[in-house]
Amino acid sequence: MPISRERFEQGGKRYSIEERILTFLREHDQQAYNVREVTEVVMEAGWSESNVEQPFEDEEHVGWVLDVATVSSILDRLVDNGALERRVVDTGTGERSYYRTRAV
């Protein structure tokens, strides 16, 4: 349901997930992280848009999936823009993408 401009203006601003990802990876530039690890660090409770008006049987699970998809998309964009490096690593249980800031 749409809201008025006045109601919109009363809302608070959300943090930038992209900026949080970059800050976290820059502060931990000696390590690389997979998408799940990055998601656990940068997403705050209540961020996910899973609280849509239709109920889900397992809203927490749906929220987690949306959060991981959001972070994954942002990580890919940051790689495409040259801000991050991505490597596919064999973890012993399969291959997984890991991310880190570009080497200086």
Largest sheet descriptor: 3 strands, antiparallel
Strand content: 15-25%
**Helix content bin:** 40-55%
pLDDT below 50 for ≥5 consecutive residues: which ranges?
Answer: 49-54
From the spread of the alpha carbons, the general shape counts as globular
Q: What is the arithmetic mean of pLDDT?
A: 84
- N- to C-terminal distance: 48 Å
Which structural class do the helices and strands define? Answer: alpha+beta
Task: Provide an overview of this structure.
With 104 residues, the protein is α+β, with helices and mostly antiparallel strands. Helix content is 45%, strand content 15%. The chain has a 3-stranded antiparallel sheet with strand order 1-3-2. Helix 3 (35-42) packs across helix 4 (59-80). The termini are far apart.
SSE blueprint and pairings:
Layout: H1 5-10, H2 17-27, E1 33-34, H3 35-42, H4 59-80, E2 84-90, E3 95-101
Antiparallel strand pairs: 1-3, 2-3
Helix pairs in contact: 3-4
Task: From the structure above, extract its key features.
globular; alpha+beta; single chain
In short:
The chain has 104 residues and is an alpha+beta fold.
